[in-house]
Design goal:
There is one protein chain. This protein has about 425 residues and is an alpha/beta fold. The chain has two domains: about 35-190, Diaminopimelate Epimerase, Chain A, domain 1; about 200-415, no CATH class. Helix content is about 50%, strand content about 10%. It contains 16 helices and eight strands. The chain has helices spanning about 1-20, 25-30, 35-45, 60-75, 95-105, 135-140, 155-165, 170-175, 195-220, 230-260, 270-285, 290-310, 350-355, 385-390, 400-405, 410-415, and strands at about 50, 75-80, 110-115, 125-130, 330-335, 345-350, 365-370, 375. The strands form three sheets. The chain has a four-stranded mixed sheet, sandwiched between helices. A two-stranded antiparallel sheet has the order 5-6. The chain is elongated and about 70 Å long. It starts with a helix and ends in a 7-residue tail after the last helix. The structure holds zinc ion.
Length: about 425
């Protein structure tokens, strides 16, 4: 995993540090937008972005035709055709490219069709929010259509847009792969670790269903004896299904923060705090052993973005105390841990705030203890996350997650060192 992230991060860190050391005025290097930003900027004037390397196969006339086709669909479709290789700004990963472009565009609704990092004539589909248009399957189907076998990138893209517009990608994908005998499709139409449906979705779905069934059985047997303070088993199911996805999201978020740092015009101290958060997020990501650590990466990334936006939003709330995966907290509440006397002032998301106010248990991020029990993360002693509540329990404005990771608090938590 670290091998996957390191080259880009190392390059970026070196570059940024070198620039800082050389005391180059921020403005002079801030003018060069990052690759993700450049693509997002281009997409604001046309829904089709084609890297010069692909202009041979998708010349300007075809680009205009594709743009017209997109406009006729009335859907928030954008197309990014660009070469992807390991070590580039997206680390050769179309999912990372998609996350960063979505982030930079700053829009909620987006259907993105991109080239693939592993197979140059393949396309991948991504969609936010939800999967209402079945874009992933629709775009993946193109690679299996006999009629598309000898066609170029432009024709494939046109077909992908057509199938997304039809809105029945699942069926299109099933039909296109029928003659493959029902086995999982060969990986050449989908990136190995992309958000593509097949490689992980089915095992994940089965795991979720199995765990949901186990949870129902568990509830049935235990209901009369033990009240469940938190929906633990539900979260276990979600955790099993989502950890791989969360890891990829965390990786993309770290790269995205790196991009923001690279193009920032913040004051030196804010930039330094953002750089510290970025470095700390990388440290935690490299050694992350489960969902609580990956949530910590997201909290550190949020800290980094907050540092860069310090002038606009001087005192932003941290992520939700009960579960940082809920996103940014919306308000503060006073809350008392079951069986403890002292109450805590914590920042929570809207859903958790409502839950606590109506005396329901919020959906808490769970952590696995050394003897393999699932407990709320804040009940784990000697954990950076329980001590800080992912930002809610910091000592003051001078305290930060990055500072604590920087002084070794996170590494000391690791009872079994993973590397040298
Ligand atoms: Zn929450």
């Amino acid at each position: 995993m670290s091998a996957k992230r390191d080259p880009a991060v190392l390059l970026l860190t070196t570059l940024v540090t070198a620039l800082l050391l050389a005391a180059v005025p921020a403005a002079s290097w801030a003018k060069a937008p990052s690759p993700g930003e450049r693509i997002a900027n281009a997409l604001r004037s046309s829904p089709v972005y084609v890297d010069p390397a692909y202009e041979g196969s998708v010349p300007p006339t075809r680009q205009r035709e594709l743009a017209d086709q997109v406009a006729r669909t009335d859907l928030p479709i954008k197309v990014v055709l660009t070469p992807l290789t390991k070590g580039d700004s997206f680390n050769g990963d179309s999912a990372t490219l998609a996350e960063i472009v979505h982030d930079r565009l700053g829009v909620r609704d987006l259907i993105l069709i991109t080239t693939d990092g592993n197979f140059t004539d393949s396309l991948n589909g991504y969609e936010w929010p939800g999967e209402a248009h079945q874009a992933q399957d629709a775009v993946a189907a193109v690679g299996f259509l006999d009629a598309m076998e000898d066609t170029g990138l432009a024709d494939r893209t046109a077909k992908a847009i057509e199938l997304v517009e039809e809105g029945d990608g699942e069926k299109a994908y099933e039909e296109a792969t029928e003659d493959l005998g029902g086995d999982p499709p060969p990986s050449n139409s989908r990136s190995e670790k992309g958000t593509s449906t097949q490689p992980w979705l089915w095992p994940a779905l089965i795991a979720v269903l199995a765990l949901a069934a186990a949870f129902v059985a568990f509830l049935f047997v235990r209901r009369r004896r033990v009240p469940l303070p938190y929906p633990r088993a539900v979260f276990t199911a979600a955790r099993t299904a989502d950890e791989a996805l969360l890891r990829r999201q965390a990786e993309a978020e770290v790269l995205s923060l790196g991009e923001s740092v690279q193009s920032a015009t913040s004051s030196t101290s804010d930039l330094q705090r953002a750089l510290d958060a970025y470095a700390a997020a990388g440290t935690v990501l490299d050694a992350a052993r489960g969902t609580p650590d990956l949530a910590g990466v997201l909290a550190l990334v949020a800290e980094g973005h907050d540092a860069l936006a310090a002038l606009i939003t001087p005192a932003p709330l941290p992520l939700c105390f009960f579960n940082p995966l809920h996103g940014r907290a919306a308000s503060h509440i006073t809350w008392r841990l079951l069986g403890r006397r002292e109450s805590l002032r914590v920042a929570t998301c809207t859903t958790c705030t409502e839950a606590v106010r109506s005396r329901r248990a919020p959906e808490v991020l769970m952590s696995t203890t050394e003897d393999d029990r699932l407990v709320p993360y804040f009940e784990v002693s000697n954990s950076l996350w329980s001590r800080t509540g992912y930002g809610s329990l910091l000592a003051g404005p001078e305290d930060s997650l990055a500072l604590r990771v920087g002084r070794g608090d996170f590494s000391r938590d690791l009872t079994v060192p993973e590397r040298g």
